[in-house]
Amino acid sequence: MKARLRLWWRALVQRRRFERELEDELAFHLEQRTDDLMAEGMSQVGARRQARIELGQQEIHRDDCRRARGLAMFDTLERDLRYALRGLWRNPGFSLTALCVLSIAVAANALLFALFNAYGFRAPPLADTAGWVTLDALVVRQDSLGLWSVAEADTLVAEPPAGVRGLYGMREVRLPVSAEITRPVSAEAVTANYFELLGIRAARGRLFSPTEARADRGSVVLSDLGWRRLLGADPQPIGREIEIAARRFVVLGVAPPAFTGTTPINAMFWLLEDDYRQLRPDESDGLLRVEVSGFLSPGTHLDSASAALTARALGFNALRDVDQQIDSGRVEARSGYLRAADLRDLLRACLPIGLAFALLLVVAAANLANLVLARFASRQRELAVRISVGAPRRRLVSQLLTECLLLALVAAAIGLLLARLLVWPLQAALFGLLGEFGVDIVEILIDGQVIAYGLTLAVLAALVFGAGPALLATAPWRGGGKPDPSALQRSSGSRLRGGLMVAQLAISVVMLVLASLIAGNARIVERTELGFDPARTVALHPDRATPALLDALAALPQVEQIGLASRAPLMGTPNRAVGLVDGRSEPLFVRAVDTGYLQVFNLRTLRGRGLHAGDGDGSAVALISRRTAERLWPGQDALGRIIDLPAQDSLGAIRTGRFEVVGVVEDTVSAWFVNGIDASAVYLPAAADSPALRSVIMHTRDSSAATLDAISRACVRALPEQNCELMPMLSAVKVQRLPFLIASRVAASLGWIALGISCIGLYGLVSYLVVQKRREIGLRLALGAQASRVTREMLAGSARQIGLGLAIGLPLAFALSRLAASFIEQLRSFDLVSFALVPLGLAALSLLAAWLPARRSAAIPPTVALRED
Amino acid sequence: MGTASLLPGTLDLLVLKAVSLGTEHGYGILLRIQRASGGALEVEQGALYPALFRLESQGLIAAEWGQSENNRRAKFYTLTRTGRARLSKETDAWNRLVEAMGAVLGASRADLQA
Fold first, then answer.
1. A35 contacts chain B (CB < 8 A)
2. Interface contact A57, partner B, CB < 8 A
3. What is the 3-state secondary structure (H, E, C) of A591-632?
4. A550 near A577, Cβ under 8 Å?
5. A30 touching B (Cβ < 8 Å)
6. Which residues of A554-573 are buried (b: 16+ CB within 10 A; e: fewer)?
7. What H or E segment, with its residue span, contains residue B98?
8. A702 with A536: CB under 8 angstroms?
């Protein structure tokens, strides 16, 4: 077997040498035979002639020799490829359309796969990812696979349950680092065995080690990114100090560039879990934030390990809150940066977009099948000639498939190149904003796996759009022999082509209508007036706004005004409460604020008064927004009315009781952007030292990096153990608008591409029909038929298909939009533009695509058409 | 004595045998077969080369380029170890076949009744 492969391979790669040697061997034979015949008395000319006759047909022998070496298959393939290339070259319209259609679909799908690949399938560079698992706590009430508390993680790591070994604890943290500027960065707090278990080796210095756990306290390991950003790529980083949350840490080592941690967010550094507990004692009690991962013991099944974990995890319930009770433990295999549960969430979130991309591929494949079908059908005569000179049907099918395959491979190459070019802009659009917050995400790459995926997709598409048409085109010769003329007529597959066209048009309708709906919603979001100016406004969310912090901030020359609130605007919905108004129960959004809050946002008072300095100290007054006033007391004056807020859990530390409305202020968008203007807003005054006031909002002199840095520094100094993450309001606006922008852009481009593909397909199909019916049309025109009538009849078929496409697509789009609206309540699921103008435009465009070639039919001179055959 | 055409499937065996007698080029192998049969077997010259390629691909013979007795570049074939084993196996099988055929063809009514 080995010898055979070696010979075969040598013949394949040194083909010229193989042919030369074959030639030489036969020539030697002829010379020897000639010599022998001359020795028997023949003349040289006669001997040579006789030798040739005896050897027989040399070309046939050569072919037999090639076949004996296993080269025949490649010769056929090469011939097919050359033939296919010639065919595609001669039909540039068909080839270019097909390449365009398929490469765009491949590029879009490859990019989507690259996204999943980056987080779900590409593993961090561990020494060995086999058996890498994550331990999860299944909490049914939360419908999620949760993390562990610090104490639980400690127990699990110290004594792993049966079936797993080598467990480590890890949590993603954000900590302010003071280098040139002070800003919070992403890091991982890990147990001392983290690097050793994962098999990571230091690029410089050393990493944490379980044997040195005590000595390693107070030190950090930098990632390559951290080393560049925080130390300016200092060639001697070991032993340098870094200030983290107002404490100095010594650099122990630098991790290799490829290792950025085990989560999709790149870690700037790693610190020991024990150190983190000292920095953030508040986060170490009941919060469930620690991931516990490790490796499956050899020979253990995930199920049995999960059972062992469940037995242990149930023991933790005694110390857990009621709504955090663990139902079972689960050991999940880990394949990439995301935990299995997070990967499932990502998949679920991306399912609609994945479906849209898949639909695009379906449109492309259907379109190609149509094009190929038309092209094959127009080649009936060529196929018939080849069959009649002895080509078996199998050869014809393989020939036609080769053509599709060639097309698919070229399209895949173009598509992957396109994906490669687009991956950077895409990344920048998706995650560029996160970079502004100092969050770096694992890079999306077009790597080997993505390329393999793109190629597979293209080959599958080639089989789908090639196999069907190829079988149909050669169907009349099924079973060999002479085909029946009626079969030849039928085999053009006109019904299938019509069906494919309708399907494409229907999908285009669905995609365009949905795209238009999404774009409409995005426009609404874009145009939404906030009701305040987000520029030069910065929010801060410490757990407690201490007087020390407020004094430090007030002392900064960059800070012009400070306001306090239970929650800053655009940081999630305010507290939702049920109030009693004139005996009715009303849902209300309640926000505790101080007097500064209204000044920071410059909220205009429309009726009554604003807040006075003493209002927080026990007086029971409230301000409400204009919309709240109109809703609670339509057509009446709201001033002097009473809102009763009974004690309820959702209000937290906010004061409850009876409040008199003393003023009505301007409406704002203060919850999520998508919710639009607040349905209700009740502002309750609170004293500056109230525990309800947890957000600090500042109006700053400017929005420069230096200003943000000064505020960060002041916060870290005043509250070293607190979270000093700054959120400029403009960034919050951008972050909230982003999903809409992306969704509308992606949807719009998908919709347009699908429509483009369908129009190209329609144009191609009608063109083909016109060519096919030239003779019939010519004859009719010669017999006196009116040109306009001929054109109309050609168009009628397309019009039927377009009508059918709309009839199927529109209800489908409506159903899908209702479905989407059931998930997002603020989504507008119907607008006239999407459901009337867009379909009309689509119908007009596709009719135009059909009319252009149909018009040509009327211009066919009867003489030309009749002469053609 | 007239010439006989080859039984189908026997060319490979004849080539193996001819090569087993010593390293030889294609034309020489042809002559060997003809001479050994006393001119009784006529090997179709064109069929020889595909057979040689086939046997080489199966690893039964090995080929190497060299000089012929009259100083021409020629491809010489040698029997490999696998080829030798195959030859002896096929020869045994052939002999059994010949014996059986001979027995059947030489049988008389008396033999069968005995």
1. yes
2. yes
3. EEECHHHHHHCCCCEEEECCCCHHHHCCCCEEEEEHHHHHHH
4. no
5. no
6. eebebbebbbbbbbbbbbee
7. helix B81-105
8. yes
Q: Rounded distance, CA A665 to CA A157, Å?
A: 55
Rounded-to-integer distance, Cα A435 and Cα A142, Å: 30
Question: Which residue of chain A has the CA closest to B52?
Answer: A65
pLDDT digits (tens, 9 = 90+) for B78-111: 999 999 999 999 999 999 999 999 989 988 888 7
Tokens of A439: 């969050």
> Which residues neighbour A705 within 8 Å (Cβ) at sequence distance 6 or greater?
A181
Q: Please, which residues bridge with residue A133 across strands? A: A294, A333
Position A619: which residue type?
S
SS (H, E, C) A820-852: HHHHCCCCCCCCHHHHHHHHHHHHHHHHHHHHH
Q: What is the pLDDT of residue A418?
A: 92
Name the pTM for this structure. 0.71
pLDDT digits (tens, 9 = 90+) for A119-148: 878 888 888 888 899 999 888 776 656 789
Residue A334's SS3 state is coil
Return the residue in B44, B53, B76 with the most chain A beta carbons within 10 A, the one to mutate for interface testing.
B53
Chain B residue closest in CA terms to A63: B50
| pLDDT score, position B2 | 55
Distance from chain centroid for Cα A597:
39
Chain B residues with CB-CB distance to A29 below 8 A: 26-27, 45, 49
pLDDT in tens, A695-751: 899 999 988 888 988 998 898 888 887 778 888 888 888 878 777 777 777 777 777
Regions in chain A scoring below 50 on pLDDT: 490-491, 869
Q: Name the residue of chain A whose CA is nearest to B45's CA.
A: A55
Tell me if A3 and B68 make a contact (CB, 8 A cut-off): no
ipTM of the complex: 0.91
**Cα–Cα dist B82/A153, whole Å:** 65
Could A8 and B27 be called an inter-chain contact, meaning their C-beta atoms sit closer than 8 Å? no
Among candidates A32, A35, A55 on the partner chain, residue whose Cβ is nearest the Cβ of B46: A55
> How far apart (Å, rounded) are the C-alpha atoms in residues A301 and A106?
38
Q: In what order do the strands lie in the sheet with B61-67?
A: B24-25, B73-79, B61-67
Which band of pLDDT confidence, cut at 50, 70 and 90, is reported for residue B1? very low
Question: Do A448 and A140 form a contact (C-beta atoms < 8 A)?
Answer: no
Query: Which residue in chain B has the smallest CA separation from A65?
Result: B50
A60 contacts chain B (CB < 8 A): yes
Nearest to A187 by CA among A262, A275, A291, A269: A269
Residue A58 in contact with partner chain B when CB distance is under 8 A: yes
Q: Which residues of chain A make contact with B59, given a CB cutoff of 8 A?
A: 1-4
**Spatial separation of the C-alpha atoms in residues A230 and A243, rounded to whole Å:** 10
Q: How far apart are CA A50 and CA B26, in angstroms?
A: 18
- How close does chain B come to A17, measured CA to CA in Å? 13
For residue B46, give the nearest of A2, A22, A61 by CB distance: A61
Compute the nearest-CA separation of A400 from chain B (Å). Answer: 31
Q: What pLDDT sits at residue A29?
A: 92
A543/A646 Cα distance (integer angstroms): 25
Contacts A67 to B, Cβ<8 Å: 50
For residue A261, the model assigns a pLDDT of 92
**C-alpha count within 13 angstroms, C-beta hemisphere, residue A183:** 20
Whether B57 sits inside 8 A of A28 (CB atoms) is no
* Pairwise CA distance, residues A277 & A285, whole Å: 10
CA distance A113 to A107: 10
For residue A568, give Cα distances in angstroms to A244, A408, A590, A734, B84: 26, 53, 12, 16, 91
Interface of A with B in 314-353 (CB under 8 A): none
The span from the CA of A341 to the CA of A461, in Å, is 32
